[in-house]
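Hey,

The postdoc asked me to send both predictions to you directly instead of through the lab channel. I've kept everything plain text so nothing gets mangled by the mail client. Protein one:
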Amino acid sequence: MSERQSLTRGIRRWLVFFIVCLVLSGLTAFPLVTELRWTEDLLSASASPVPEHFPGLMEWITRVREGLDTIEREQPFMLYGTDWLAFAHLVIAVAFYGPYRDPVRNIWVIEFGMIACAGIIPLALICGPIRDIPFWWTVIDMSFGVFGVIPLLIVRRMIKRLEVLERAATAVNPPAVPAGA
């Protein structure tokens, strides 16, 4: 296998991983109320160490679950916002099909994703306190940007190497110019 093929295969593997993570992240935003109920049940089970060792986490999960229950009961249209959040994740995941098909030409999608990951940090730091989010939860939110950018940095570096290889191949074998051009 040539280095170009190997790079392309590696790029595609990382992109599939990233796309799957985006899709899963989006899909989990649809059943938010049910997920929070299950999470609270799991964390408060008799075998769980969470209530004893992490009471702040337990209080936060209960607070969020109670808030979502109230919204679902009294203002269910508000949950439409999380449906849009889910949809946005799915749409963004589709955008990464461009670099999957043609990494060099669509490197801008990777760079867009990197900018979006960086944007998570100021968003969490600004909006977290405004929305009364505990700082430790803000740190968890920021971790999505930090961990999300890692595969994108790897892919970008691989695409840059692939670009150099493609330029070298084009210099050695320039494309044929059609007759009459």
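Protein two:
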Amino acid sequence: MLSKIPINLDGIDKKILDIEILRVGIIAELDAINLYEQMAVMAQDKNIKIMLLNIAKEEKTHVGEFQTLLLNRDKEQTIEMETGKEEVKKEVGE
């Protein structure tokens, strides 16, 4: 994604704009995690590798923050997330 909102938020219904903003935040953080982890694999310097992995871990915290806000505001998302958890338990036992 690299600093560009992947969808046009201009036409979004104001009632759900904040929810969509939270989803974009999650996308951005997941993108950052992938980027930092890929760079860590390539880094030659041990300290840079450690720093990149630490930053990726912080981004995972940010995903949790955005997700918590999203689940607080989008009850359908909460229900579907629980449904997904149950389906995984049924399919793979985890």
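Summary for protein two, as requested: The radius of gyration is 16 Å.

Thanks,
C.
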